Automatic annotation (TrEMBL):
GO terms for molecular function: oxidoreductase activity. Keywords: Oxidoreductase. SUPFAM superfamilies: NAD(P)-binding Rossmann-fold domains. Gene3D superfamilies: NAD(P)-binding Rossmann-like Domain. Pfam families: adh_short. It comes from the Bacteria. Belongs to the short-chain dehydrogenases/reductases (SDR) family. This is Oxidoreductase. GO terms for cellular component: membrane.
Length: 233
């Protein structure tokens, strides 16, 4: 499988022996979840577009005694998601945990003023890429003793807020897609859910609310346990 650097790490912890795929893993919530899972013994497959940022997270994971495989990938290259699924099967034979966290804010403003290319990018990243992950990873999750899939939700997808445009649309569709998929898997060993961490100090949040003081907000590492709690159930 395409990877920059792999290291063997600790075997103990509540996620010892599990393989966890995390998207949007180069910063913010995704990086925090990666550190949290790695500290609990999971081997993390970290997906993001930026090689340098992934390597920084890998250094942090290794400092915690964990291990990772780095996959530099733009999730809008949908065929490569399928290739990643095949490579995971060849390498690990299963996938224990999927965290669909990657997100794109796009442009905030009136719905009728949106640039079509930007609108499409948001839908592709926040919705269609996650559908392709579902399509590619469901068979691998079913091969795990207790497959778990989590996606990062947002209040913008559940209540209409003016000017949130493509982001709100994509999050609303994502949440319904996840609920439908969860209903389909009730008789399997796979459990699927959404995690809405609320306001968190991330780059996306800073872009949307440039006037906020992020120093007094919840930090990504402080909310990573929300994801851990859900995969341990």
């Amino acid at each position: 499988m395409a990877g920059i650097r792999e290291e063997s790490g600790q075997r103990g912890g509540r996620l010892a022996g599990r393989v966890a795929l995390v998207t949007g893993a180069s910063r913010g919530i995704g990086a925090a979840v990666a550190r949290c899972f790695a500290a609990e013994g999971a081997h993390c497959v970290l997906v993001a577009r930026t090689v340098g940022a992934l390597e920084e997270v890998d250094d942090q994971v290794r400092a915690l005694g964990g291990s990772a495989t780095l996959v530099p990938l733009d999730l809008r290259e949908f065929d490569k998601i399928d290739q990643m699924g095949a490579a995971l099967y060849e390498r690990f034979g299963r996938l224990d945990i999927l965290v669909g966290n990657a997100g794109h804010l796009g442009s905030l403003g009136p719905m009728s003023h949106q640039d079509p290319k930007v609108f499409q990018q948001v839908i592709e990243t926040n919705l269609l890429a996650n559908w392709r992950l579902i399509r590619a990873m469901e068979p691998l999750l079913k091969l795990a003793p207790a497959g778990r899939a989590l996606f990062t939700g947002c209040a913008a997808g559940r209540e209409p807020i003016a000017y949130w445009s493509a982001y709100a649309v994509s999050k609303a569709a994502l949440e319904m897609m996840v609920h439908v998929w969860a209903a389909e898997l009730t008789k399997t060993n796979v459990r699927v859910g959404l995690v809405d961490p609320g306001p968190v100090a991330t780059k996306l949040r800073r872009t949307a609310f440039p006037g906020e003081d992020q120093a007094i907000m919840a930090q990504p590492d402080e909310i990573a346990s929300l994801f851990l709690d859900r995969v341990l159930v």
